[in-house]
């Protein structure tokens, strides 16, 4: 892939240069940390949306996260690339990874209960597997990983309670919107590999800055945020979510993509369920699901199957990059 013009920040290690490098416990610790960061999304969003409308909430948390990362980058003596190519990648990634799917799910939750939403949104690993297996083939999509994705989805359904899924099918259009959002998430984990030449903190800062600024005009026009009277709890939730869930979470997401690949990174989606349930019990006083133990067992089995290392990841990254470069040049890839 062509080098970035200007003075780009140091790039993270390229897995394509060491395709047989073994995964270490630190890599899986990053995956768990990512799950913890994004698990807080569920209770914090519920607290924030109590007195802050959705577009304002998403824009505010994105801008807070971007400001936090930009300060850290300044301390580290790094800066975001100013070239158009870099910002085009940031914009495309943020659009399919956050802006569009978040707005779609937020709208759909007006018509779909929380429990079915969690299950529908947990299909991301399955869609990522299908896209990887049927289209990109940038890393091994084994039957074991597919089994892990199915087990994780089953565990998610058991944790929230199978009886709570009786409403599925009540609003097909809204449920389809959630599924389309999960497909967008899956595509983001795959095409996010285009950004592995940048430092993860740079990618996270640039993406969040774009996402916050692109939604700001809509928030100002539609929701008039200057007229709002948010509660202290909502403001604290917005700031906490911006720094913890958005800034640190997105940075860890790109680190995991570089170190672990698409399918393994998606396994954190299932780890978020039991962690999110625990946070909801702790922060919101919700009750512990009766089937938590069985669901947790299924989730852990699914995550274990999805995180089994597979050969060929580095070579797959190289193939994916070569295809993207060929398509950009207007040629037809053969593989």
TrEMBL record:
Domain of life, source organism: Bacteria
Keyword tags: Membrane, Transmembrane, Transmembrane helix
Single GO cellular component term: membrane
Start and end residues of each stretch annotated as Disordered: 1-21
Transmembrane intervals: 51-73, 94-112, 118-136, 143-160, 172-195, 202-222, 234-257, 269-285, 291-313
Membrane topology: Multi-pass membrane protein
Ranges annotated as biased composition (Pro residues): 7-16
Span of domain EamA: 29-160, 174-306
Compartment annotation: Membrane
Protein name in the entry: EamA family transporter
Organism (species): Bradyrhizobium sediminis
């Amino acid at each position: 892939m062509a080098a970035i013009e200007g003075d780009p920040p140091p790039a993270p290690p390229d897995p394509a240069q060491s395709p047989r490098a073994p995964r270490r416990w630190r890599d899986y610790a990053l995956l768990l940390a990512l799950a913890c960061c994004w698990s807080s999304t569920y209770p914090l969003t519920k607290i924030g949306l109590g007195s802050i409308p959705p577009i304002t909430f998403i824009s505010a948390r994105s801008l807070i996260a971007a400001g936090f990362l930009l300060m850290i980058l300044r301390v580290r003596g790094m800066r975001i690339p100013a070239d158009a190519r870099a910002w085009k990648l940031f914009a495309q990634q943020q659009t399919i990874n956050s802006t569009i799917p978040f707005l779609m799910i937020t709208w759909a939750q007006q018509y779909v209960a929380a429990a079915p939403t969690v299950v529908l949104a947990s299909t991301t690993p399955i869609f990522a597997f299908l896209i990887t297996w049927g289209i990109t083939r940038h890393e091994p999509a084994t039957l074991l990983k597919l089994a892990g994705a199915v087990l994780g989805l089953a565990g998610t359904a058991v944790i929230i309670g199978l009886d709570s899924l009786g409403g599925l099918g009540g609003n097909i259009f809204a449920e389809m919107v959630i599924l389309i959002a999960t497909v967008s998430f899956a595509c983001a984990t795959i095409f996010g590999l285009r950004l592995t030449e940048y430092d993860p903190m740079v990618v996270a800062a640039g993406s969040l800055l774009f996402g916050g600024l692109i939604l700001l005009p809509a928030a100002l026009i539609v929701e008039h945020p200057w007229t709002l009277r948010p509660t202290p709890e909502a403001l604290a939730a917005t700031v906490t979510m911006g720094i913890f869930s958005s800034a640190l979470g997105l940075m860890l997401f790109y680190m995991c993509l570089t170190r672990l690949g698409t399918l393994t990174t998606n396994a954190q989606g299932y780890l978020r369920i039991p962690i999110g349930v625990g946070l909801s019990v702790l922060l919101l006083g919700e009750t512990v699901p009766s089937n938590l133990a069985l669901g947790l067992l299924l989730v852990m089995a699914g995550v274990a199957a999805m995180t089994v290392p597979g050969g060929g990841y580095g070579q797959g990254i190289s193939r994916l990059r070569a295809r993207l470069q060929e398509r950009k040049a207007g040629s037809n890839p053969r593989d």
